Amino acid sequence: MSDAHENLAAAVIVAAGRGTRAGGDIAKQWQPLAGRRVIDWTLAAFRASPHIGDIVVVLHPDECDRLGYDDVTVVAGGDSRSASVRAGLEALVDKAPDVVLIHDGARACVPDRIITDMTRMVEQFDAVAPGLAISDALWSSEGHGFRQVNATVDRANLYRAQTPQAFRFFAILNAHRAYEGAALDDVEVARAAGMAVRIGPGHPDNIKITTPEDFIRAERILKERQLTDIRVGNGFDVHRFGPGDHVVLCGVQIPHTRGLQGHSDADVGLHTITDAIYGALSEGDIGRHFPPSDPKWKGAASEIFLAHAADLSASRGFRISNIDCTLICEFPKIGPHAVAMQSEVARITRTDAARVSVKATTSEKLGFTGRGEGIACMATVTLIAQ
Predict the structure, then answer these.
(1) Where are the domain boundaries for CATH 3.90.550.10 in the chain?
(2) 382 DSSP 8-state letter
(3) Buried b / exposed e along 182-198 (16+ C-beta atoms within 10 A)
(4) CATH 3.30.1330.50 domain range(s) in the chain
């Protein structure tokens, strides 16, 4: 998530139930799924979205200390789903977001596309929810055991409801405050308050884990998605020379007749790699996370910035596949220090050094780098879902 949440939608993720039909000794949101917990996959989708700011997770009162994330708010749920949603909404009142997405914690396979579609559609329609048109024949039945068909039901205009369901924040908050009793979902609460709810596109992968068989299907979906979720980010940065007796490049101090100017330690190499990682995550640049107007970053080691970007990448479920960094300068000579730089970048990002490339080129004495006025750098980073 971004540090600046203005104009971003908030999210309430409801995971306060016990989920007994899923089997197991613990509630389904805490059960393992493709190497992580169910709730971790659900959270990863919202934390990775550039459209989502504040996130509230609603948990059972006895489980509020189990989540383990510093960038989300945890609140205790109530004795029904609608009571739990209201608790999550009330936790956002001081933030006063314009829009909120409400999602079932057990829908761990929610595609990015649905989150994006809902945040865009709600700006136009005020209340939207994803749904899938029913394509199978429908029966009603009677009896017990092997039940008997007693009627065929017309499937025209019928949809399977999904989440996240998106609303103008104060409209759905007031609807929940006025609603009495239990509700199947937030569309029911909204409609009871007189709100018109539009149906947006759902997705077959957006299943709600309910039974043991659903875990098998969800794991297959997530593993297939991991094979195709590859992100590439580019970075570019420039620093001019100024007074000094050394430069810091890719974490390595190199003696030189001048230094580089910048608000931090002016490590143009680490800045560029950091921006490449943020770019792959759709998280802007260093200035969004570490504003140069903030005096606490004056003279700061750029290692702080790169470590933050690498940690953010890992928290979103990605590993760094490779880093390719090119320093552009006439001097100092980079070759004698390239291996040390490679090792330092690998250490900071917790990446195998064999996946890090640091190299240099000149601009053939053209431009500001050719005139020896400063150093430029470009970098490319590839992230792969893990």
Answers:
(1) 9-228
(2) E
(3) ebebbbebbeeeebebe
(4) 230-385
Neighbours of 170 (CB within 10 A): 14
Determine the Cα–Cα distance for residues 52 and 2; give it in Å rounded to an integer. 8
Contacts of residues 18-22 at CB distance under 8 Å and 24 or more positions apart, as own/partner, are: 18/60, 19/106, 19/209, 19/210, 21/210, 21/211, 22/106, 22/209, 22/210, 22/211, 22/212, 22/214, 22/215
Q: Residue 27: CB partners within 8 Å, gap ≥ 6?
A: 15, 17, 18, 19, 60, 63
What secondary structure does DSSP assign to 207-229, as a single string? PPP-SHHHHHHHHHHHHHHHHH-
Overall residue count recorded for the chain in this entry: 386
Q: What values do phi and psi take at 44, rounded to 5?
A: -60, -40
| Res 3: pLDDT | 44
Q: From CA 372, how far away is CA 370, in angstroms rounded?
A: 5
Structure-block tokens of residue 26? 């613990």
The token pair at 42 is: 């659900």
Identify the pLDDT of residue 1: 41
Number of H-type helices and E-type strands within the chain: 11, 19
Helix, strand or coil, per DSSP, at residue 156: coil
Give the model confidence (pLDDT) of 230-273 as tens digits: 899 999 999 999 999 999 999 999 999 999 998 789 999 999 99
The annotated binding site for a divalent metal cation is made up of 237, 239, 271
Note the pLDDT of residue 193.
97
In the CATH hierarchy, which top-level class contains the domain 9-228?
alpha beta
Count Cβ atoms within 10 A of the Cβ of residue 354 and give its class: 0-12 exposed, 13-18 middle, 19 or more buried.
exposed
Binding residue ranges: 237-239, 263-264, 271, 285-287, 361-364, 368, 371
User: Is the CA virtual torsion 343, 358, 348, 344 positive or negative?
Assistant: positive
Low-confidence ranges of the chain (pLDDT < 70): 1-6, 19-22, 386
CA distance 302 to 251: 8
230-385 maps to which CATH number? 3.30.1330.50
